[in-house]
Amino acid sequence: MATKPTPRVRVPTQAKPGELIEIKTLISHEMESGQRKDASGKVVPRKIINKFTAAFNGKTVFEADWNPAISANPYQSFFYKAAESGEFTFTWKDDDGSDYVATNKLTVA
Questions:
Q1: What share of the chain is helix, strand, coil (3-state, %, to 5)?
Q2: Strand order of the sheet with strand 20-28?
Q3: CB count, 10 Å around CB of 13?
Q4: Are 32 and 48 in contact (CB under 8 A)?
Q5: Cβ distance 34 to 43 under 8 Å?
Q6: What are phi and psi of 7, to 5 degrees?
Q7: Which residues are bridge partners to 22 per DSSP?
Q8: What is the pTM of this model?
């Protein structure tokens, strides 16, 4: 892979108690299928993100299993009902065992 996968996340920094907020995530990732060959004829190894997890204060609040047909640079959005201040942890798991992590804080007031 030419570039390191880069996660990007949009989370509001503040929300009112009980407010429904939208969280948007995108990770720059080539999602190599393992079916192409390089210039020398060798198969390019499969490298696909297969799981996305969002946790708030250590508790999983959203989870998605991705299949090989997912596009490059996958985008995922979901809604969350804000109840307390804390920190989101977003994790993308790759076939090769790599984890890509991003964190964002949310203040509920």
A1: 0, 55, 45
A2: 6-10, 20-28, 75-81
A3: 8
A4: yes
A5: yes
A6: -80, 140
A7: 79
A8: 0.89
Which amino acid is residue 77, in one-letter code? S
DSSP line for 17-47 = TT-EEEEEEEEE---B-S--B-TTSPBPPPB
Q: Count Cβ atoms below 10 Å from residue 105 Cβ, excluding itself.
A: 11
Cα–Cα distance for residue pair 5/72, rounded to 1 Å: 11
pLDDT digits (tens, 9 = 90+) for 36-87: 899 999 998 888 999 999 999 999 999 999 988 888 999 999 999 999 999 9
Q: Name the residue among 33, 29, 28 with its Cα closest to residue 43.
A: 33
